[in-house]
Amino acid sequence: MPAEIIDGRQIASEIREELKEKANKLKGKGVTPGLAAILVGEDPASLSYLRGIAKGCEAVGIFTETVKLPQDVTQDELQQKIEELNKDPKFHGIILQLPLPKHLDTLSAESVISPDKDVDGTNPVNTGKLLLGEDTFVPSTPRGVQELLMRSGHSPEGKHVVICGRSNIVGKPLMGILVQKQKGANATVTVCHTGTKDLRSVTKQADILVAAMGKAKAITADMIREGAVVVDVGVNPVKDPETAKFKLVGDVDFESVKDKALAITPVPGGTGPVTTAVLMANTIQATERLSG
Amino acid sequence: MSAKILDGKKISTEIREELRGRIRKLEQKGVTPGLAGILVGEDPASASYIKLKQRASNELGIRSEMVRLPQSIKQTELLKKIELLNSDAKIHGIFVQLPLPEHLEQNKVLSAVSSDKDVDGFHPLNVGKAWMGQQAFLPATPSGIYEMLIRSGYSDLKGKSVVIVNVDNLIGKPLASILAQQEVGANVTLCLPSTPSLSACTRWADILVVSVNKPKFITPEMVRAGVIAIDFGSNYIPDPSSKTGKRLVGDIDFDTVKEKAEAITPVPGGVGPMTVTMLLANTVTAAERQTSG
Lengths: 292, 293
Known about the structure:
Chain A is about 40% helix and about 15% strand. Chain A has helices at about 10-30, 45-60, 75-85, 105-110, 125-130, 140-150, 170-180, 200-205, 255, 270-290; strands at about 5, 35-40, 65-70, 95, 160-165, 190, 210, 230, 235-240, 245-250, 265.
């Protein structure tokens, strides 16, 4: 039987509806939530991502501004700009678009973002709080995965979740979220090394498999257990041999896996839209806290 | 075949010898490493543990200062005391003995310790940095376990399955934080004693770490042959043959599991001795960092 397709766009639109109400309440108090996005250089992919965020934010009632800095900006100048935004009451959330040019130190820059405005949850203090189970901002992609599971009726509680990929923006924070003794978490969590010789023996353990390795179609049907829930965080541009155009594919071989899984997220239209919605949710939450 | 016994006392002695050398170098620069411990209240277990840390410090040549504060201390006063120690140049490491009385907010107190002096590795900044693979102070128990593995010949953990039955902030999570890094490359699973199909998880482990405080919780059926079994349980069970009528045991049924394992830590004498040693190692590291250049 083909799997249930988890519709990320639908879930994202539910979240946005809830956010509109919250934004309206804030407006009633004379507060407009504001998000500043810092972009160093002119990377077209980053520009288009930020345009998407700006559009989404506008629809919900969040004011956004993209702060563009030249490719050759110095570390000091970048950090000064962040300090300014930290103090600017128009902005309740600040994000720093990655990757930064090579001459800049990402972690130092992220550490300057005020933890109260760090809606991407990248300041190490917030990472630490996340792991310790304290109230903090959670990076939007892993938080989006949790949200997607909860809202599609596949709560990770008591389940064995296997995460393939251990990046600082997806795999590790997701492990941090799911092992907490909290609602929507409380899972047995494995984070695995994708170079493992017999990766299949690990992935086959999973009630819920999260693919976040950044490798097109790496998860195939033989790697999952019958009835697993499969969440695909991968976004890989792959050239279509017929049309010679690039299209986006996930880390999961969707066509084969969908016949074995209980539920699966598509790419595009799965985790991506939810990620953006969570970033907005974090911005609204930051606004509520800062204006509360 | 019976398992190799991982001797925490012996490894601990080795590490302390190395620390002596590092402390001598500091002394040559006129620096004596200083460790301050804060004990709030009169909990006897905490008091005896802090004494143990003090004695071990002194034996090694670390100047230790134990600050005893009354059970009823206000949070603001405790925070002020921590501030004083933060700015005291003779003190390079600070730890707050847990648990704290209930009226104190543990997270606020632990975040008040300067992250440069946080030799327990409990400050969120250190926790976050460690999780992101940056240089940071690591809590003593997980770093002690990792050090034991390395020094017992199990340093290559790439692709190995490590299963940790404990998700606490002091053990499970920070151990995952060490072992899940790219450079170490283990497949790390965090689970609880209440995990459904726990046996399936534990049987899958190349390295099994247990800290649940349930005597003989892990039986031979729950492990694979050739497992490396690390026990950080501490339970007293009745033992008529002992003078006190009781005996300290771990969470792993040692006598039976050791017949199936490749290596195993005893209780006592396994991970336990490592924890104080790792605190001392962090203190020496802190002193080196604060006085270099």
